[in-house]
Amino acid sequence: MLKDDFVTMEIGKTKHIALVAHDGKKKELVEWCDKNKEILKAHFLCGTGTTARLIAEKTGLPVKGYNSGPLGGDQQIGAKIVEGQIDFMVFLWDPLEAQPHDPDVKALLRIAVVYDIPVANNLATADFMLHSEYMNNTYARKVENFNKTVQDRVNKMK
After folding, report:
1. % pLDDT > 70, the chain
2. Which of 24, 91, 93, 128 is 20 to 30 A distant from 51 in Cα terms?
3. pLDDT digits (tens, 9 = 90+) for 4-21
4. Measured between alpha carbons, how far is 87 from 60 in angstroms, rounded to an integer?
């Protein structure tokens, strides 16, 4: 396994979905979740602070809430991605509003790419993801074998 460039990680039939939205996009995400609750109820949902609470209240869906984004919620979601506990993410960020915790947002989006997590940043992409054939099937994603990468770097330094 140390010699392989990539490690295959399987996304199961039940997806672990992170739901995140900036203030200007919360209403859109809540309405999208309500519209799609029949599909979403078959999956594990989590989200940052207020977003998770609003979705749970409006839709009746169980949503595990983490801290608010600016208070570390983005980093908590990122940690769950690293731990293999989140399969994909719907993150409606507001491109027209500056965010005080923008470095956290960029770190979360970066870690999603590093771990090959599908991410929807708008409703059109969220719809495509939710209605994809992969929602009802498993999916094998490839993640860089970081153990090999580190070992290769060490070997080059010798």
Report:
1. 93
2. 128
3. 777 888 899 999 999 999
4. 22
55 vs 32: CA distance, rounded Å: 9
Q: How far is it, in rounded angstroms, from Cα 152 to Cα 154?
A: 5
Q: Is the pLDDT of residue 154 over 90?
A: no
Task: State the burial class of residue 71 (Cβ atoms within 10 Å of its Cβ: 0-12, 13-18, 19+).
Answer: middle
Backbone angles phi, psi at 91, to 5 degrees: -125, 100
Helical pair 26-35 and 49-59, crossing angle rounded to 10 deg? 40
Q: For the chain, how are helix, strand and coil distributed in percent, rounded to 5?
A: 50, 20, 30
Q: How many CB atoms lie within 10 A of CB 131?
A: 11
Residues annotated as catalytic (active site), given as ranges:
74
